[in-house]
Amino acid sequence: MSEDPAITLQDRFAAAKNDHASLWKSLWDDGTYIPWDRGQSSPSLVDLLNDYPSLITPSSPSQQLTAFVPGCGRGYDVLLFASHGLKALGLDLSESAIIAAKQNAEKSGLNSQLYGFVDGDFFGDAWRSEGERFDVVYDYTFLCALDPSQGLREKWADRMRELVRDGGVLICLEFPLYKGLEMPGPPWPLREEIYKGLLEERGFVREMYVKPRRYLESGEGSDMVSVWRLK
Ligand SMILES: C[S@@+](CC[C@H](N)C(=O)[O-])C[C@H]1O[C@@H](n2cnc3c(N)ncnc32)[C@H](O)[C@@H]1O
């Protein structure tokens, strides 16, 4: 049975009470109502990696940087990192999304050594090699997909602290910054101050804060890119 597009994402999540994991999975399984899926990498990330190559340049030719994209959906941003030569891992709760991501990856013609996809929970450890940490972690439409009333923002920040290697970076495409703070999600509204409050007290130092040259209409022109280095 296909989903009724007249029912908003916010109404669906309100009706799901706290079982958001099951709802994400059923939306992906059905596949007819996935309004967040853009069918491509975020243009803001494309431009960031082209404009600031030092973010993804290893310190020696023998080093291979690693990237991680939680809540990767169909994996477009994972493949973008792989296309720059990073070894990139995408994670999503949804097995259906991960199967689609693997199919996209096969079609991309990229070296399969450069990407991996796994289904699992960002907050759990089943998907992760013990102690595994990453040089670059990218968050777009993931923090805003976590219900703040469930204390998940603090858990997200604690988890990022564990997953970014010392000296590595967390890149956040901050979204949605335009949305009233009282509005329901997903996407749950965010602000520059919220990212700062979560990350600065965990040892992340913001080393870039830029307005993307290109962005998706969904951000209503307010999206920002922040780059946080773990000191
Ligand atoms: C708004 S969607 C964004 C997907 C993708 N980043 C994109 O832009 O197309 C949020 C994604 O996070 C995934 N997700 C939500 N909670 C998660 C969790 N705890 N662990 C892993 N993935 C999760 C959902 O399944 C969904 O694919």
From TrEMBL:
InterPro entries referenced in this protein's UniProt entry, alphabetically: SAM-dependent_MTases_sf, TPMT
Domain of life: Eukaryota
Gene Ontology annotations of biological process type: methylation
Keyword terms, alphabetized: Methyltransferase, Phosphoprotein, S-adenosyl-L-methionine, Transferase
PROSITE patterns: SAM_MT_TPMT
GO MF, one example: S-adenosylmethionine-dependent methyltransferase activity
Any Pfam family matching the protein: TPMT
Coiled coil: none
Keyword S-adenosyl-L-methionine (UniProt): yes
Keyword hit for S-adenosyl-L-methionine: yes
Official protein name in the record: S-adenosyl-L-methionine-dependent methyltransferase
